[in-house]
Amino acid sequence: MLLRKRLGCFHAHHSNIEYIEQAFQNIEKVELVHFVDPGLIQQVSKGTDGLAFKVKKQLEWMESCGIDAILITCTNYIALLEEEQMELSIPIIKIDEPFFEALCEEKQPQTILFTNPETVEGTMNRLQQYAVLHEKFINAEVKVIDSTFELIIQGKKDAYNNAIIQALHDIAGERQHISVAQLSMVEAARQFETESGVTIIHPLKSLVKFVMGSIE
After folding, report:
1. How confident is the model over 87-131, as pLDDT tens digits?
2. Average pLDDT value for residue range 31-50
3. Where does residue 50 rank: exposed (0-12), middle (13-18), buried (19+ CB within 10 A)?
4. Domain-wise residue ranges, the chain
5. Cα 216 from Cα 130, distance rounded (Å)
6. What is the spatial distance between Cα 22 and Cα 34, in angstroms, rounded to a whole number?
7. C-alpha separations of 14 from 10, 79, 141, 155 in Å
8. What percent of the chain lies above the pLDDT cut of 70?
9. Tell me, which fold does domain 97-201 have in CATH?
10. How much is the pLDDT for 56?
11. Considering the domain 5-95+205-215 in this protein, what is its CATH number?
């Protein structure tokens, strides 16, 4: 009998569920259990006072639901987590760590795209910390696709993806190495790769291997 691991996935928006489901669709050893709290991401823009404690309590609640590990898919939540001391008995997997590993392997100048400006500072601070810890040098420029993130919040997925694809076309013309930092940007990045043949680094590319190494 196959013993499956229950992976609790903590999302900022329900649209992220399908990306994780697709990534693990052929992994029989893992059962996904999704938890979504979109209210937190709305509060970040108003300030982070008390939000780190809220994330901590949410993770403790998830642990009590009988899961074997937690995957946090929102970089804002990951940054908030850094502010709290956690004593969970199960692994906490941060979606940006395999992404950072891929970014640190790139030796050439690169552009990291965001749609949500509120995630930039926390993500880039963690990337720099990761690079220092692993004795890597990052030569990266950040670009935010303005007035785009609200589209996915409003459920306008096609318009959101089209805006990202257009931005990728604009940047690819400059012949730089490109990545997209948010899970919600993955579908557009994949479509652009198919259309253009240009490789785009994104948070899902090495996630499954990273997760399996953490929970097996």
Report:
1. 789 999 999 889 999 999 988 899 999 999 988 988 999 999 999
2. 79
3. exposed
4. 5-95+205-215, 97-201
5. 24
6. 13
7. 10, 20, 29, 10
8. 94
9. Rossmann fold (3.40.50)
10. 86
11. 3.40.50.1860
Q: Do the domains 97-201 and 5-95+205-215 match in fold?
A: yes
Measure the CA–CA gap between 125 and 140, rounded to whole angstroms: 12
Tokens 């100048």, located at residue: 109
Q: What whole-number distance in Å separates Cα of residue 34 and Cα of residue 51?
A: 20
Residues 54-59: contacts with CB within 8 Å, 24+ apart? 55/80, 55/81, 55/84, 56/81, 56/84, 56/86, 58/10, 59/10, 59/86, 59/88, 59/92
Average pLDDT over residues 29-44: 85
- pLDDT for the residue 62: 93
Token pair for 60? 């403790």
